[in-house]
Write a structure and sequence with these properties.
The structure is a homodimer. By secondary structure, chain A is mostly beta strands. The first copy, chain A, has a domain of 84 residues: Jelly Rolls (Sandwich). In chain A, 5% of the residues lie in helices and 47% in strands. In chain A, strands 3, 4, 5, 6, 7, 8 and 9 form a 7-stranded antiparallel β-sheet that branches. In chain A, β6 and β7 form a beta hairpin. The longest helix of chain A is centred in the N-terminal third of the chain and has 6 residues. Chain A is globular, with a radius of gyration of 15 Å.
């Protein structure tokens, strides 16, 4: 190394250990105008889409299914899927699952569907 | 599920099992104008920067160190770091490590430094 400054990595498991709720994405890091978020989910989310952007799901623990109007994808630990922009989807997890989400800043968890499950945006952990 | 189409997840371990070289990033998926790439690394890379973009490193196996001119960050499995745009950096791994890289399309592994270690860009796996 050329200098002494110790930069800090983001440890996904450590950050997940701080989360005790579900369906509330929390921001870990930013890359340009994108954000990395962790979230714990269990049960059924609502149908929604993000007309302006793709959205990436990476499963860190557990298994999820993302339903689409014409089918579904099942993701286990270490599996990634990019939901194309404008495509309606509904995440589901039978048991609690832990996800890394990657998407542009400012994207709400419910897209434009709204409702009481809409989480506050841009909450850091 | 609402339809019968089975979409395919990207399994990071399966994709890594297909890689038998080092320092050659391969594209797994795209999100808008960004790409997810896997790469195996061992030893010292060269000093370089990406003046136009941040670059994200997520360690999937092993441990790496990213040196900066004023310090360093060490990343173990499940740890993430975003190298800010324009900051010179040099990845290093004492033993082979497996990484997920996230960055815009069109970014060369050596930035603008060039040289023989520059990998062909936009190679999918």
């Amino acid at each position: 190394m050329s200098g002494n400054k110790q930069y800090q990595p983001v440890n996904l498991k450590e950050k997940l250990s701080l989360v005790d709720d579900q369906w509330v994405p929390r921001v870990l890091a930013e890359m340009n105008d994108y954000q990395f978020k962790i979230v714990k989910i269990k049960g059924d989310f609502i149908w929604h889409d993000h007309p302006e952007t793709d959205e990436t799901f990476l499963v860190l623990e557990g298994e999820i299914r993302i339903d689409f109007r014409d089918g579904a994808v099942t993701l286990g630990k270490g599996e990634l899927f990019v939901v194309p922009k404008g495509i309606e989807h509904k995440p589901f997890a039978e048991e609690e699952a832990h996800l890394l989400l990657i998407e542009p800043k400012g994207i709400l968890n419910t897209g434009h569907a709204g409702g009481e499950i809409t989480a506050q945006n841009d909450v850091w952990i």
